[in-house]
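hey can u check if this looks right to u? its 121 residues, i copy pasted from the old doc so theres a chance i mangled smth
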Amino acid sequence: QLQASGGGLVQAGGSPRLSCTASGRTFSSYGMGWFRQAPGKDREFVAAISWSGVNTWYTDSVKGRFTISRDNAKNTVYLQMNSLKPDDTAVYYCAADFRGVATIPGEYDYWGQGTQVTVSS
């Protein structure tokens, strides 16, 4: 029900935009989040946005570089990634939380399949 896209091989400093499109259900009233998981590491919180789009949250390592946004009319959430670093290499997942927003993966109800982002130095 959540389809993430936009990943790929990117040079350091690049600016790809990830998209997460929902189908089969309207997620306009859900908090949405982006997480990432690098090889051998736990899944970590990246960014989240409230259902209205007014409130956003970021992990410290991406503040000032990544921007989360949403278009409820399109049932889509975006993650604009700027100034990418090799440490940003991971599989990026989008998720939906009907209770609001959270930074803990276990709080989310629906997950996309993930999209690989590989940053080359």
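Residues 45 and 103 are 5 Å apart (CA to CA).
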